[in-house]
Amino acid sequence: MCDENFHVNAKGNPEMPGTSPGQDATTKDQLSPEKITPQIIGNGEMGGNLSPGEISPETTNNGPMGDNLFPEEIILEITNICNLRCRFCHFHGESATIRRPTGHMAPHIWKGLLDEIARWNRPCTLLTHGAGEPLLYPHLKSLLERAVDIPHITVGFMTNGMLMTPDISRMLVDLQVHSVAFSIDGVIPETHDHFRKNASLDRIESHVRFLIDEKARRNSMLPGLTFNMVAYPGIMDQEEAYVRRWIPHARSVMISKFRPVGSRMLWDPSDSPGSVIPRFAPCPLLYRQSVISIEGDVGLCCEDINLDVPAGNILEKEFLLIYNRSPVLCAYRRAHGQRDISSLDLCRDCHVWGGHVVFHRNEREMDGMTVGCHASPSGRVYGKI
Ligand code: SF4
After folding, report:
1. CA of 302 to the centre of ligand 1 (A)
2. Angle at CA 340, nearest 5°, toward 57 and 269?
3. 76-108 per-position pLDDT tens digit
4. What is the DSSP code string of 232-249?
5. What is the pLDDT of residue 10?
6. Which terminus of the chain is more exposed, N or C, with fewer CB under 10 A?
7. Ligand 1: which of 352, 356, 357 to mutate, judged by most atoms within 8 Å of the beta carbon?
8. Are 271 and 19 in contact (CB under 8 A)?
9. At residue 55, does pLDDT exceed 50?
10. 288 vs 252: CA distance, rounded Å
11. Ligand 1 neighbourhood includes 352 CB (under 6 angstroms)
12. How far is the CA of 68 from the centre of ligand 1 (A)?
């Protein structure tokens, strides 16, 4: 559901989440910086209002069955059609199998949802991406116009940047959309365009530059920009140049763990020396995130890319009722609360519950800026300090 399973916080702030109190990292070996490699760290989620370990059945006031949960992040899949064919995309990639319909979301689905969210009076981040490229969606502007009008919603999306024309950049600044996350893999066109099939790094970078310049021309802080590079084998020597290229313009730059198609693992399950094994804690995504497909189906989390755990459809029932009362979501939360996920098809092979545990931080001077970096099982996140 997420592009390379990368999530972005649309709220702003340099996304540098703290170590989750309930999720200590345990290591087989004392970690030193040089032991932190792309193999043992990787993609992570960029924060939210609460650090992931702060949300759990123990700290919500409603317990694992839910009753009064409001997701702080909704991933709304307005389209699952994509203009690229990234080789390792978990949905459109060479070895991926699409097992659900493809197309665009009918506008009445998101209109109903936004009407419901507008009544909540609770902060909520709406991310209008999913298994497709949001800039292909013909009703994107109308959706963003409606969303930015709701005071407690922050809205953003992730894009591959290929279709980010000057008109779209101007529209994003006009509307003061909160965030845009670019998925760009490295700084060398040959390798980028190899992994991101049908893409042109040169064209994408010129689009990003236009948006950066447009923000500067209009003296606008928004949209806040984030950049994500997947740590593909063979391109990690580009990390330093990638961070230097984008950090001056970014809220954060992320180097996310490469996971083969279908893999939800973030560390070496064989427990080899040097691997970082977080202590289990209930998955925060069950309590803070929701995903809604192009057809209005509510899924488990952003890892549920094929809607294997359908919880209900928002055309048939109020979203919040599904989120709080769906038997399948309650069963998943209950199992996580009991710390036994062995019977959960999607979770038992997933490490995302521990993806945010920060096991290393540092900071250094970079081109006149102080740049902090934290590493977790799911990635390295760089931000200006
Ligand atoms: S542990 Fe389960 S709920 Fe959490 S991200 Fe993985 S599949 Fe989703």
Report:
1. 8
2. 115
3. 999 999 999 999 999 999 999 899 999 999 999
4. -TT-GGGHHHHHHHHGGG
5. 32
6. C
7. 352
8. no
9. no
10. 21
11. yes
12. 21
Q: Ligand 1, residues 73, 266, 329, 346: which to mutate, most atoms within 8 A of Cβ?
A: 346
Residue 331 has pLDDT above 80, yes or no: yes
The C-alpha angle with vertex 16 and arms to 84 and 268, in degrees rounded to 5, equals 65
DSSP 33: G
Would the CB of 350 count as within 6 Å of ligand 1?
A: yes
Residue nearest to atom 5 of ligand 1 (CA): 352
This prediction's pTM: 0.85
Which residues lie below 8 Å from residue 147, measured CB to CB, with a gap of 6+? 114, 126, 128, 153, 155
**At 268, is the pLDDT very low, low, confident or very high (cuts 50, 70, 90)?**
confident
Residue whose token pair is 């994509």: 82
What is the pLDDT at residue 273?
A: 66
Kindly give the distance from the C-alpha atom of residue 217 to the centroid of ligand 1, in angstroms, as a whole number.
42
Q: Give the residue carrying structure tokens 């994408």.
A: 204
